[in-house]
Design brief:
With 264 residues, the chain is α/β, with parallel strands linked by helices. It has 5 helices and 12 strands. The strands form 2 sheets. Strands 6-5-4-7-8-9-10-11-12 form a 9-stranded mixed β-sheet, covered by helices on one side. A 3-stranded mixed β-sheet has the order 1-3-2, covered by helices on one side. Helix 5 (225-241) links the parallel strand 10 and strand 11.
Length: 264
């Protein structure tokens, strides 16, 4: 015998929607459609419009713009928002003659790369083989058994433990590398590199260099190199005016120098 339910009990019958609920549902659908449309437009712009189309390179000299762009991986279609600076840095720094220094982006499709080119600043002989170094001790070239031609500073006393292309030279002591970098930087800042023929680093606490016209200058340790080199430059200029060449200049104390001529 079937049981009848009360007329007001209908478990599967939905309640009629009020005008407010209908309006809210329509608003939600409109919001979802708007978001989908925005995402579609963003994807379309990213794929077809927001591409890196203009790349400039600042700081290169010998290495061409095209080579640097290729090393950076920017010779392909890349989205403005997909630029990966770490990959760009790795690609550029893989070339031992280049140093990545940064980038700037200009919306919607322009990018500028900043690089520095390493230059040969000195040569050093290790086990009878000559290598070219930049001012930071990076090994740029292996020249074999050739002899220095006098165009670069020759570094002596560098008791190298390891010399590999594309890596900093590993000297006998870390102090040798530190004083090399500091002195080379100062020599270049004072535009004196074409006046120095030899730099001896055998004892970082008793440095000396030899000028192209035969003066041997003792600089003491690696402190106050700017003042010491400035003192040396002034003394050498005066000695040249006096017609005195060669000899020993003691310039281990800034602003104080003594000169011993060759004949003594």
């Amino acid at each position: 015998m079937s049981q009848q339910l009360p007329p007001d009990f209908a478990p599967f019958q939905s309640m009629p929607k009020t005008p407010l609920q209908t309006k809210k549902r329509a608003g939600v659908r409109m919001l979802i459609l708007t978001l989908i449309l925005i995402c579609a437009v963003a994807v379309l712009l990213n794929e077809s419009v927001l591409k890196i189309r203009n790349v400039a390179v600042v700081g290169n000299d010998e290495i061409t713009w095209e080579e640097i762009v290729r090393m950076a991986g920017l010779d392909q279609n890349i989205s403005y928002f997909a630029v990966n600076e770490n990959k760009i840095r790795e690609g550029i720094n893989a070339n031992r003659y280049l140093v990545y220094e940064g980038l700037t982006k200009e919306f919607p499709g322009s990018l500028t790369l900043y690089v520095k080119e390493r230059k040969s600043a000195a040569n050093v002989q290790v086990m009878g083989v000559m290598y070219l170094l930049d001012e930071e001790g990076m090994v740029l070239e292996r020249l074999g058994s050739t002899q220095p031609d006098g165009t670069l500073i020759t570094v002596t006393g560098f008791q190298a433990k390891e010399v590999r292309l594309g890596h900093q030279i590993i000297p006998g002591t870390q102090a040798q590398l530190e004083v090399y970098m500091a002195l080379m930087e100062e020599i270049q800042l004072q535009n004196y590199q074409d006046q120095v023929s030899e730099l001896n680093l055998s004892n970082p606490d008793s440095l000396y260099l030899v000028t192209v016209d035969g003066y041997t200058a003792h600089l003491g340790d690696g402190t106050e190199l700017r003042a010491k080199l400035g003192t040396l430059r002034g003394v050498v200029a005066k000695l040249r005016e006096m017609g005195k060449y060669g000899g020993v200049i003691e310039a281990s104390v800034p602003a104080v120098a003594t000169y011993t001529p060759v004949e003594m």
